[in-house]
Structure formats: C-alpha cells, structure tokens
Structure prediction request, 308 residues.
Amino acid sequence: MGILPLKSTFPGKEVFVMIPLCVILCYYVNSANGADQTFKFDPETYSIIELEGILGDCRIQMGALNEQIHDTQKDLDWLIIKVNRISNSGRHVLKFLHNSVGLKEKKISQLEVQKKHLAGTVAKYQKIYDLKKAWEKEKTKIRVASTPDMEGRVESVGKFNMGAKLPDIQQAVKKAGLEDWVDVMEADGRSAKMNNALPILFSSGSAALATEYKSFLKKLALFLKPYDVKVYVNGYADPDPIHTRKYPSNLELGASRAANVVHEMVKNGLRRDVFKIGSTGEYRFEAKKQSSKKTFQRRAQLMVVFNG
Prediction:
C-alpha cells in the first residue's frame, strides 16, 4: 500500500482514520511506547463506496470546523467590543481580557490551518473518487456499446439481480430476528448495505461492550458469515477530555470501542480481513456539546456493504 500522511493541528483530536484492524493494533503498541504517530494510507486503494463514506465524514468534519470558527469569531467580536468600551471609558482593562482576546485569535488561526489541511485531504480523495467514477462509467459504456443487441437484456438483468438481492437480505434479516437492530437499503444500484439502527453505546471513559450488544454482535456475525461483505466500524467519544495511559485521547478511546466491536464479531466467526475500523474521537460532535446527548455520542457505528 502507498502512503499518505495525515497530521492534525490538535494531536489525538481532529483526525479522520479508516485503517485495517492490523494497522490500528500496531498504532496501540507504538502509542504505549510514546511514539509520535502519523496515520498513512493510499486513497487509491479504496473502492467507490468506501470513498463516498470517507468524503461524507470529511465534509461533516468540515462543517464542524466552520461552526467552531463562526462561534469563536462571535466570542472574539464580543470580547473586542467589551475591551474597547472599557478602554474608551477610561477604565483599566484587566489582563485576563487581553489574554482571552489573544487565545481566541490563536484558536481561530489554528482552526483555519486545520480547515485548510482538511480541504486538501477532501480534494485529494475527491479527485480519486471522480477518476474512479468516470472510469466505471466508461467501462459501462464500452460494455454496452460492444453488444448493442444485448442492451435491453443487460439493463433488465441488472435490475432483476438488485430486486432479488435486496428483498432476500431484508427477509433474511427478519428471519434472523435482527430487524429491530439494523436497516437494510440499496447501496449503489448493484448491491445492498446495512447500518445498525440502534446505536452501540458505551459508558463514559470505557470501551467495554455491554452484554446485550455482545448478543447482537454474535447474531449479526453468524448472519453475515455466508455473505461476501465489507464491514466498516467507526468508534466515537463525547467531548469530555480523557488522558490516561490506556487512552491518551478520545481518538484512542473511540478506536478501542470500534476495535472491541470487531473483536466480538471475529470471535463469532467473521474473518478479520472483511473489517475496516476508524475513529474521529469526539471531533464529529465537538461543535455541539450538549450534555443531554453525551450518552449517544459514546457509541460505535456499523456499516455493512454486501458485494454484488
């Protein structure tokens, strides 16, 4: 695999990662040894569906960054007005107000750097995505053009396969008693995908799976075993900071939550090579720090893509 470094202005916080299980395990070992980490991967190795997921998450992060910049700028404007009013009235401006202005300006500058870096990452992935999409479209044209008399049959066969596959999977999900846990939908016109409808939640500061989730993951692993699938697991954390030997930051905590989901499914028969796991720590939620939602922020998200 080629390499592409992704570094964050805020180490351990604002990094989007999708990496094979073996790589993230290496990451944990190096972290324990105090090594400075840089995640490296090659966007060209991802499929179109994978790239769509990565680009979607990157855009969510971009939106969160824009919201943080906007909110911080509002705070800065208010502070400047307050400092000017105090100064114009002839009163002494307290040092902490000047310091607050400086800190807000520094934060905006850091966020802008992070935004620029993220925009570059999005552009790189978008370019690869556009090339792959164009090539796929061209291949379809060539295939149809080479057998014009078969065009109608090619179309009808494609629709028939999708029509048969999706209902079959939906029916199998009901039969397995998973309909309350997962949603099944069309992925890209040729295959199906599955998302967990109920979140896999965790206690604060913990990556341990509750018993009911272990039961669900066992059932899901046994259900998926006969299928040709890719399973994407992302782990998330709430905005509360963490800094322990086991979890230096929320990035490691989120990744550990995702890894534990994978371990549970591997234990119940799924192959390790069908998984990709990642973590954005608390970053996805940083702009919306509502304590009432923290429980739902401490979660793992599953997406299963059925290869058509």
About this structure: Strands lie at 5-6, 18-19, 39-40, 182-186, 192-196, 200-201, 229-236, 275-281, 299-306.
